[in-house]
Amino acid sequence: MMSNNLPSIIEMIETLALISEDKDFLTRRYLTSQHKKVNQLVADWMSVAGMKAWQDPIGNIVGRYEGHENGLPALMLGSHLDTVVNAGKYDGMLGVVTAIHCVASLQRQGKRLPFAVEVIGFADEEGTRFKSTYLGSKAVAGTFDLDTLDRLDSDGISMKEALNTFGLDIKNIPQAARSKNEIAAYVELHIEQGPVLEDKNLAAGIVTEIAGATRLSVEIVGKAGHAGTVPLNLRQDALVTASECIVKLEKIAKASANTVVTVGEILIKPGASNVIPGNAQFTVDLRSTENSVRTKVENEIQQALQEICTKRKTKLITTKTHSAESTICSKNVINQLDDAFVKSGHPTYFLPSGAGHDTAAMSDLTETGMIFLRCREGISHNPAESVKMGDIEVGFQIMLKFIENFKPL
Ligand code: GLV
Ligand code: MN
Ligand code: MN
Q1: Which residue's C-alpha comes closest to atom 3 of ligand 1?
Q2: Which of the listed residues 80, 94, 126 should we mutate to test ligand 1's pocket, taking the one with most ligand atoms within 8 A of CB?
Q3: What is 212-324's CATH topology?
Q4: pLDDT higher than threshold 60 for residue 289
Q5: For the chain, domain boundaries
Q6: 224 alpha carbon – ligand 2 mean position (Å)
Q7: Buried (b) or exposed (e) across 170-208, using 16+ Cβ within 10 A?
Q8: How far, in Å, CA of 27 to CA of 44, rounded?
């Protein structure tokens, strides 16, 4: 896997893992100085691998390796370079650096193909900073919603301001969109983030579909008051209301097949031991592979939250911050991935993705497919994320085989 003067895949992963906003753990949000640093580093690696590299107007980093002649439609490979808070080091990054190594291998062999190969490091897939996901891939797919520019981060900085500070001009964002003629397909290698491949004793699998997701931001407005004087039956406690809501959400999701719900963030105000909480804000992340089920559960959730708030005399404010339909990967790409697995001597195994991926946004633009790699105990969004070196090599071999045999659709 060593080629040219490039660091190895694992060396790249270790290097990227050190570029963090927090010195004690890995957090790298969109449009931070760490994002800028990573883009520069990845652009350098792309150049060494024989690509022309540039940063697009939303902050994605892109590299292009021409085919038999300049300007041919591209097979695009990649994943994201941003992270959740206290992240693992493989989620996203592994797909980008493996793709760079595949191109480096083509360059080393002096091989040009009847299509171009592009590698992309998406700027924001996780939505950690502005609570809106797939920002990088939506811009490329031409589905970026300009209203997102007014979203604020936790410090009150708007996305518009952050882009400006980063050195990007919002007027140019539409130019990040690529045309259907330019991109023949998008293929992403990613860790599974779940336990299925490990359970099957397999290094890699092919993704059939990506679960849809809805994210809500919920605010419950009660009344702050003295913890010693207000009798329990006269309170409008926002936290007790939120607690009942959260337990109810779990009950609703459990009653529906293939559905999960998570409350991952909660903020209580004013936040003192002797003050009745007057305000509670929490997030809801709802996923299902069936769009109709997700819509049904979302309606049930909205209704249940309202009933609980009415009963507890608190006010409910909900905002939908994200909604993505479930996505079926392209049959044609899946078949070509299947061939690549067989040709590189690996059993084919098909599985759905419960996690969201840039592939979902890219499916609005082009044909898509994904390779999943086994990760230890299925752990992800956690610094304990771990992938075996041998499995990384398997992923690299399958992806290279896929590229070398790829037939534009
Ligand atoms: C992305 O990692 C997601 O939340 O699915
Ligand atoms: Mn993730
Ligand atoms: Mn990811």
Answers
A1: 356
A2: 126
A3: Alpha-Beta Plaits (3.30.70)
A4: yes
A5: 9-210+327-405, 212-324
A6: 36
A7: eeebeebbbeeebbbbbbbbbbbbbebbbeeebbbbbbb
A8: 22
pTM for the model stands at: 0.91
Helices 93-108 and 389-405, packing angle to 10 deg: 60
The set of residues, in sequence order, having a beta carbon less than 8 Å from that of 389 and lying 6+ positions away, is 10
Mean pLDDT on 229-241: 98
Q: Are strands 116-122 and 74-80 parallel, antiparallel or unpaired?
A: parallel
Nearest Cα to 338, choosing from 402, 394, 390?
A: 402
**Pocket of ligand 1 from Cβ distances under 6 Å:** 126, 355-356
Dump the DSSP string for 240-256. Answer: HHHHHHHHHHHHHHHTS
d(CA 213, CA 290): 10
Closest C-alpha to ligand 1, atom 1? 356
Provide CB contacts within 8 A for 133, sequence distance 6+. Answer: 124, 125, 126, 127, 213, 215, 322, 324, 356
Angle, CA of 79, 392 and 15, to the nearest 5°: 65
Q: What is the pLDDT of residue 1?
A: 47
Centre of ligand 2 from the C-alpha of residue 62, in Å: 20
Helices 9-17 and 93-108: crossing angle, nearest 10°?
Answer: 140
For residue 307, the cross-strand partners are none
Query: Cα(91)–Cα(198) distance, rounded to whole angstroms?
Result: 17
Quote helix, strand, coil % in the chain, to nearest 5. Answer: 35, 25, 40
Q: How far is the CA of 83 from the centre of ligand 2 (A)?
A: 6
Q: What is the mean pLDDT of residues 33-51?
A: 98
Q: Which residue has the higher pLDDT, 257 or 210?
A: 210
CA of 114 to the centre of ligand 3 (A): 30
Class of domain 9-210+327-405: alpha beta
pLDDT at residue 222, as a whole number: 98
d(CA 88, CA 387): 10
Mean pLDDT score of the chain: 97
